[in-house]
Amino acid sequence: MLIGDKNKFAIELSFDEFFDNDWIAWGAFRMFVNGCSYGIEGTGTTYFYLIVVELKKLIEEKKLSKSFFEKYSDQEIVDNYHLIFEQLSDKETDGKLFLGLNYKNLHEYFYDFVYKTEMAFNDGSNVLMFRDKTRVSLIGYRSVGGMKIKDLNGIIFSCEEFDNIIQQTVDTILFERDEALKMKTRM
């Protein structure tokens, strides 16, 4: 099931099994940024509970973050993110500035789909999101084995378009789950 435009931004869902509100569903979740896919196609890799919770928060809270996409290139953002959160220890980052911010404050400006939603991309993928009042910036990349960054893609588009895709994704997950559970109870 595809929501959005793969050549811009889209979310692909596949479901293997459905559950109540504690787990919601088991399946796979893939994102597309500029035609590049992040995640593994068609195999069960993740539960959808935290995905639904976090995507709902994205829609409801519309939390604004630093407009890094105006000051830094996608490569600079990902290189710093990768260094800070995947390679350096807290001790190594203590008191240092990254992307113009103290390390301790930096995490609140990044929306990391893997970290926040526990999406199991399982192919080294990650998608970062930044939002200002009118635009959303998405940066997708892979870091296989925690080393070299590859498949870097970024896009900036309207908050309205982003919110619509996120809302459709939540609605689709919950609708598919509800329909499957209705079928189960009829049997």
Describe the structure.
With 187 residues, the protein is α+β, with helices and mostly antiparallel strands. The protein is built from seven helices and eleven strands. The chain has helices at residues 49-61, 68-71, 74-87, 90-93, 103-106, 113-117, 159-186, and strands at residues 2-5, 9-18, 25-33, 36-38, 46-47, 97-98, 101-102, 111-112, 125-131, 135-143, 149-158. The strands form three sheets. Strands 1, 2, 3, 4 and 5 form a five-stranded antiparallel beta sheet that branches. The protein has a four-stranded antiparallel beta sheet with strand order 8-9-10-11. It is globular and about 60 Å long.
